Amino acid sequence: MKSILAILILSAAPVLAGATLSPRNSSPGDIGSESLVRVYATSQAFDFFRPWAKKPSVMHRGLGPVVENGQVLVTAELVANHTYVELEKSGTAEKTPATVVAVDYDSNLALLQPTDPEFLSSVPALRLDSGARVGDQAMILQLESNGRIAETLATISTITITRYPLDHLGLLTYRLSTPLENRDGSFTMPAVRKGRLLGLLMRYDTRTQTANLIPAPVIQHFLEDAKGKSDPGFPRAGVAFSPTRDPQFRRYIKLKKDGGVYVTHVSPGAAADRAGLRKGDIILALNDQPIDQDGNFEDPEFGKISFSHLISTRSHLGDTLTFKIQRDGIEKSLPVTLDADASPASVSASHIFDTQPRYFILGGLVFQELSRPYLQEWGARWKEEAPQRLVYLDAYQEELPPDTGKVVFLSQVLPSPDTLGFGNVSPGVVKSVNGVTIKSLDDIARAVATPVDGFHKITFEEDPGFIMLDAAAAESGRDRLMQEYGIPAAENLKSP
Amino acid sequence: MFRLIGFTLCGFFSLAASAPARSPAPATAAKVANGLVRIQETSQAPNYRVPWSPGEVSGGVGAGFMIGENRIMTNAHVVSNARFLAVSKEGDPKPYPARVLFVAHDCDLALLTVDDPKFFQDAASLQFGGVPAIESTVSVYGYPIGGDRLSVTRGVVSRIDFQPYSHSGVDSHLTIQIDAAINPGNSGGPVLQDGLVVGVAFQGYSGNVAQNVGYMIPTPVVNRFLKDVEDGRYDKYVDLTLSYHPLHNPGMRRALKLPDGDSGVLVGDVYSGGVSEGLLKTGDVLLSIDGLPIASDGTIKMAEGTVEMAEVVERKFLGDSVDLEILRDGEPLKVKVDLSHSWPFTLQANAYDETPRYVVFGGLVFQPVDANFIREHRPNDLRLRYAFDQFISQGIYRDRSEIVTLSSVLADPVNAYAAPFTYQIVDTINGGKISRIDDVAAAFAKPSDYYVIQMLGLGRPIVLEREAVEAARDRIRQRYRLASEENLKK
């Protein structure tokens, strides 16, 4: 509760500040460009088709605001899978290496610290501008190839909750309409208003000329986490709901009040589940804020907005929220504590950055764990191109039994004398190895220690049902296989 | 694998055959022309988007040939969904009404007859030959696009192999590939060698995929069809309904205790409801079929050469049996599989001469999902596409024999909030599981204050109040010109 109060006070402040500031022309000085630092991030992603190898490195440039303590704020995308990050002061060519001190892929934010502590000591911090309204104007800042900063006027058209590109989590988003030109591949672009940071741009749609901004309240949450005020992260309650606008549906669930949403699913093990929320409950209010038929509450700053904003952005891990629900016609209150372990491990990870994908090679058979990045490796049309069973398991993982674990599948067969004839075995989900049920790659690693009658028997969910591998031959041929295919190690079982 | 494009029927009629410059024997060409038939089809295919509408009428032209006993052979796709068929002989301008005697959609063949006996007077029927040799020359007769008269093209036999038949989309049979130009309008026409019919032209690739690739149905398939209908009924193909896999891996061969050599295939999936269920199981090794040894790639040696082992079953009929020698857990075993019934779960096959089934309730239109439905609706819903595509391979048919979806919403106040549920799969209605479209009709026929329709997945149910549905009933029927609120017959 303490941190919620803190946000409310902070968010009230800029409104006052904005009102007292005299209107200024939007010259670079006024927009706070002295607080901007050029960021050069070299990244190298892992290849999920060859999990032992990395893809070619790429360099992205961005423009990051100095926020507090001489630290620079960028999007997490800019530094995902980074190998080297460098900062360059605006106006001079002075450079210094930097380290990533905090990164959060839910909110798509990262904080950089120069290795030279004096590097940004003279640079003023850009403060956050939390009091935005629909219709407000701001400047989006980009880097020109000559190093100059280009400004583009933008107008806030919508303030809403959207799913952020790197994760499934819905967070507060400002949508701006702006005729942004593509300049020199800038990855992080700040939007500023009256010398304050309104947000960081994360997506721009050239067709509709709209930009999605990570707004100041989300940045605020991230920075507070980074300061160690609470466990870092954006909480999830683990509740899926449906609106109750349909009057026939309202009568059927005996919902007499005006508002309320119908709980359609509670993720097993998540915060709401442990607090006792159930499918079929009707959520009427959250911390005494009434929830309407669409799941919105009246936010003092932004007006009607989804109640997930109260949970994910306005609350921190460890906070307790009070859900007022109707169950079997009776109203009751349920305290839901948003613990750090509130979200159970997912069946298929939505993102894997900065760590090598896990894999296990047995006699030329390559096993991997299902993840969204693996599926995305199939290209822009991965939903059609990737193995359909895997796409299905990823898309509907919430419906799988709670004890599913990870989905382990045969991702490819490296042709060798041991795998002769297995070349056309399709990517199949592994059920068991040598009689041991497989719920992770670690299970496979354990199971291969005990072959049956000298053979490894691997069973699959689908056709052909099973294959068998000569255990001794797989063992003796391993080094040669690794050498021939240039694979440095037969396994990577390190957890991210 | 490129998708085969079945021929569209848009050939042109020609009055007389121009004698091909290098025909094998001019006398033969004249005789062939005597047995040739041009088929003018008027068809009406139902509209699966408006399942109560009788559908659009269209026309086409194909070829056929007389085979004696007042019968004309052609492709099934030439006469599918026919409302009226008119046939005319080569050189005789008069069209005669014809009717379908038998149609076999699984092998794209049909038999027609003409009731007017005058039609068959001084008509020559063509005789069937065997399987032509690779590289031998054949002539294709028909009325393809590109001119008005009978067309004859020549080519060589390029390949004899199992190929998918695009008419049903799910069946594969022996097929002969030739390099003669085969184009729309050739469909159903005879392919001749030395004056004997060695195949029926039926499909090719569209020009931007491959050139000089045409396919004909060879005589083993044709003869099987003719024998099948001898009892006055077409029984369809019967299949072992299992998947089998090559056994090349030496380690796996040792593990399965297979003798040295190069024989045997591994049984993968044995489909529930098929003839092999309970007789064979995953992990069995098939060693021989009707006494013919099975090689490790699944082929056998027959008189025609090396063919897929399935060819043995291909030539059998409903009620026949297959003798298998297998290895189970290292022990040899003899298994007799009775081909007692054909595979029941055929929703992935293109269907013809059927009326769409549907149920309308409160303006919600429910339909079973099959190949025709998918082709016309082209739903994007991931779960629905998965359920259709993987219906057999993921064993979804074991759980429900049909996939029923909310295919559209006839907008009305009673269903104002139902549109987002379109193309979701119906799981239960009032708690009762929906395994086929008939279950939907039965559930709505039971009186209840509320009808609670739960879709697969984690969403809320659709709820309809009985009173609201009844009040909207006539309004919806009139506004959307619903001829009938349900059709449960194919």
Structural features, described:
The complex is a heterodimer of chains A (496) and B (490). Chain A is an alpha+beta fold and 496 residues long. Chain A has 3 domains: 4-226, Thrombin, subunit H; 239-337, PDZ domain (Pdz3 Domain, Roll); 359-492, N-terminal domain of MutM-like DNA repair proteins (Alpha-Beta Barrel). Helix content of chain A is 18%, strand content 34%. In chain A, strand 17 (296-299) and strand 18 (303-306) form a beta hairpin. The longest helix of chain A is centred in the first third of the chain and has 19 residues, at 2-20. The radius of gyration of chain A is 26 Å and the shape is globular. Chain B folds into 3 domains: 7-229, Thrombin, subunit H; 242-338, Roll (Pdz3 Domain); 355-487, Alpha-Beta Barrel (N-terminal domain of MutM-like DNA repair proteins). Chain B has helices spanning 26-35, 76-79, 219-228, 250-255, 310-314, 371-377, 382-389, 437-445, 466-479, and strands at 5-6, 36-45, 56-68, 71-74, 82-89, 96-104, 109-114, 137-142, 151-165, 171-178, 190-193, 196-204, 214-218, 242-246, 265-270, 285-289, 292-293, 299-302, 305-308, 321-328, 331-338, 358-361, 364-368, 404-409, 426-429, 432-433, 450-455, 462-465, 486-487. Chain A binds chain B through residues 240, 242, 245-246, 248-249, 251-252, 262, 264-265, 383, 388-389, 391-392, 395-396, 398-399, 417-422, 424, 453, 455, 457, 462-470, 473, and chain B through 243, 245-252, 254-256, 266, 268-269, 282-283, 382-383, 386, 389-390, 393-394, 414, 416-417, 450, 452, 457-465, 468.
